[in-house]
Prior knowledge:
Blueprint: E1 4-6, E2 10-12, H1 20-30, E3 36-44, E4 53-60, E5 63-70, E6 73-80, H2 85-94, E7 98-99
Amino acid sequence: xxxxxxxxxxxxxxxxxxxxxxxxxxxxxxxxxxxxxxxxxxxxxxxxxxxxxxxxxxxxxxxxxxxxxxxxxxxxxxxxxxxxxxxxxxxxxxxxxxxx
Length: 100
């Protein structure tokens, strides 16, 4: 299955929770070394209120897995990059999300 793309680096297979798409677009626009971001499954949660929060969790084969929390939901994000965790967290914070 081919994924739809936005600007060739933000892959869109699922919908994206409120507030997260703008942050991902800003992250990709200001960091050309990030190869791609693939948003994953959305699940409802109780504690996802207020400003968008992103938690970088575990390394993957080609980057990092992160969890975005916003608007009463959580969404997995698969970020393809060679960066370390701290460098990625700083870039996410500059893009406008709170790093949890």
